[in-house]
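Q: Predict the assembly, please.
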Amino acid sequence: MASLTKLVVKTTARKQLVDITDKVADIIIASKIKTGICQLFIAHTTAAITTADLDPGTDKDYLDAFEKLMPELSYRHSHNPNHVVDHILSSIIGPSLSVFFENEQIILGAWQRIVIVELDGPRERNILIRLID
Amino acid sequence: MASLTKLVVKTTARKQLVDITDKVADIIIASKIKTGICQLFIAHTTAAITTADLDPGTDKDYLDAFEKLMPELSYRHSHNPNHVVDHILSSIIGPSLSVFFENEQIILGAWQRIVIVELDGPRERNILIRLID
Amino acid sequence: MASLTKLVVKTTARKQLVDITDKVADIIIASKIKTGICQLFIAHTTAAITTADLDPGTDKDYLDAFEKLMPELSYRHSHNPNHVVDHILSSIIGPSLSVFFENEQIILGAWQRIVIVELDGPRERNILIRLID
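A: Predicted assembly structure:
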């Protein structure tokens, strides 16, 4: 049983894809677990976690598509109706992700990166990480 | 190793977001595991599981956006073409979720709740839950 | 601790939903774990993993809806702007899934199947599978 790690990521823009693959890799190397599953969870409602292709410019493609995807409706959300779509998109993409590692290396596709999707930044975002052997 | 728990939730409307956070918290407290991961899975094809912000009225915002999001096409689905979009949306949001807990407390963002998305209710929905220490 | 299994699936069309439930069931039966969680991860950025209803014709309904869902924009992605939407959709549906099994049987809804969503095939797709007891 590995202990729980909290990874804090400071995002720098209102909308952003942040590659956290190297930070996750560091946590795996710092642990004593060589092979297993790395569970990730983002403890927020205007950000999500997934994997993505980050070929140059593609992060902006993602963000443009996310914005166009969400219907423009007369929303009720009292806190700030303008950003309810950020909540909805976060729930659709989802807050949890599981990746695998073997011999301390994360197993990803050739262009696959672990990313957090920031939809209401800039902010400090808390990602919980736990390794299971 | 914790045993498998089946949580049955009776939904009360055709479309609904149901907050199951307190029920999941009860299962964690009733277990002997203080810190770990809580895995959830919904065994249905017209409902999904995720986290959401449930500020008053926001549940309706989610449901309105989900309905507008899905394209109106001439679908083939023989069982009932009208509700094929419920299947598709369920698959996109996804049936599985992992949350973390520490000292018997689920670790969530300030406004983050664990929800099931009911898209073809009212029904009894089965959620499988397992705690990993 | 179960060892890591790599499942290779050859897809046969550009866009396709492939039912891998029986292959996952075989892996569970071949293991010595009777009850637990089966973690799945697809190591690609133009394919995703989820559960779906596969009533005849419904796979095509999913693919039609996915195509209509994605906004037509002037994308930047330098590798091939035409398929950036395949990356985006893969990230939204997600690369990881957790299912439960009991007495060597996967616990799914009546019509629920484990599927990979192929968005840029035909290809060999690698799915990592690990059982946790």
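Residues 9 and 125 of chain A are 5 Å apart (CA to CA). The interface with chain B takes residues 1, 4, 39, 41, 43-46, 69-71, 73, 75-79, 84-85, 87-88, 91-92, 94-96, 98, 126, 128, 130, 132 of chain A (CB under 8 Å).
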